[in-house]
Design brief:
alpha+beta; two-stranded parallel ribbon; elongated; 4Fe4S_Fe-S-bd
């Protein structure tokens, strides 16, 4: 039988060997404020089309509401910090920007497999005890970020995402619920201080106040969760973001301590770092599925994805892409066709951009000076 005081240390070692970069332990309980914040967001209707937020709220607010027997939570984090500048492709007007987390394999599959291995390890080290375990990655009614903060992995920043002193804003989260009574770690203190870079960086002003996000204004919500037409008031702000948005994460000063993630299956694929909008606009359903096989992008489907691509083309200022959106404006999918028609009008009316000159005709930084 493994001594009671050693099992947490063994779990940490095993978790790191499996590829997790952060591990902590928390009691299976949350402060009332966590559930209250969720209830407030839902009652205001800010969850939009994310109906799963409103469902099973009681289970989200209390781990024991989901599983009455749970005693402890093992919180795990895996870094997906990029090699270089996460926002570098925002300057490529004729290329699409895909959120860092979605530039390779679907993290749900990768992390869930590792969690199952770790859960089996926990069971094998329980000795004469006969514990039970359940594993979760993002899709269950689990409040991952508050639990991770209680387990000492980091704190919820002003953008509402978890921030780690070691890994910055780049952590995928997963949990193992167990009936074991494990020694909890100390909850992490908030280290945001007076910084508001994430708030100021948000293109759509979705962070309406420190620690308050209005999801229905968020580009990640609009390009991924939202099924209908993207409201026109946000289309220009999307720029060339065609799946998700990293702006509030990338500007966090704590990222200066982050090393590039070590899981090879999460490292960016070359063809997803700055894919040409022209190529993406020509994808049929089979081509879309083949291009994004194994990627999180695949789950939103070809039509919704090309809706985003069409808007990005409309923001590109490149009249050479006009035939692409004129063709998409005849697509059978009405929402995609409308986005493409909007993009076509925008390309016809926007001034043609010359190299090194912005829309107002002012030379941009780095433009050549003939003198």
């Amino acid at each position: 039988m493994t001594p009671r005081t050693d099992i947490e240390a063994e779990i940490r070692v095993k978790a790191q060997a499996l590829g997790f970069d952060a591990v902590g332990f928390a009691r299976a309980e949350l402060p009332p404020s966590a559930g209250a914040r969720l209830a407030e967001l839902v009652s205001a209707g800010h969850h939009g089309e994310m109906g799963w937020m409103a469902e099973r709220m009681a289970q989200r607010a209390d781990p024991r509401g989901l599983w009455p027997e749970v005693r402890s939570v093992i919180s795990l984090g895996m870094s997906y910090a990029p090699e270089g500048d996460a926002l570098a492709t925002l300057g490529h007007k004729t290329a699409g920007n895909i959120s860092v987390y979605a530039r390779n394999r679907d993290y749900h599959d990768i992390i869930k497999g590792k969690l199952k291995h770790l859960a089996q390890f926990v069971l094998s080290r329980a000795g004469e005890r006969t514990p039970q375990v359940k594993v979760f990655v993002d899709t269950a009614p689990v409040m991952e970020k508050p639990l991770a903060q209680q387990a000492g992995l980091g704190w919820q920043g002003k953008h509402t995402n978890l921030v780690s002193r070691k890994h910055g804003s780049w952590l995928f989260l997963g949990e193992i619920y167990t009936t074991l009574d494990l020694s909890p770690d100390s909850s992490h203190d908030d280290r945001c201080g007076s910084c508001r870079r994430c708030i100021d960086a948000c293109p759509t002003e979705a962070i309406t106040a420190p620690y308050t996000l209005q999801p229905t204004r968020c580009i990640s919500y609009l390009t991924i969760e939202h099924k209908g037409p993207i409201p026109e008031e946000f289309r220009e702000a999307l720029g060339n973001r065609i799946y998700g948005c990293d702006d509030c994460l990338a500007v966090c000063p704590w990222n200066r301590f982050a090393q590039a993630g070590r899981e090879a299956k999460l490292a960016a694929r070359a063809d997803l770092e700055a894919p040409a909008l022209r190529d993406l606009s020509r994808l049929d359903d089979a081509g879309f599925r083949a291009r994004f096989a194994g990627s999180p992008v695949k789950r939103i489907g070809r039509d919704r994805f090309l809706r985003n691509v069409a808007i990005a083309i409309g923001n590109s200022g490149d009249p050479a892409l006009l035939p692409e959106v004129e063709r998409l404006a005849k697509d059978p999918d009405a929402i995609l066709a409308e986005a493409a028609a909007w993009a076509a009008v925008r390309l016809r009316t926007m001034p043609k951009l010359l190299p090194g000159v912005d829309e107002a005709g002012v030379p941009t930084l780095g433009s050549a000076n003939p003198e």
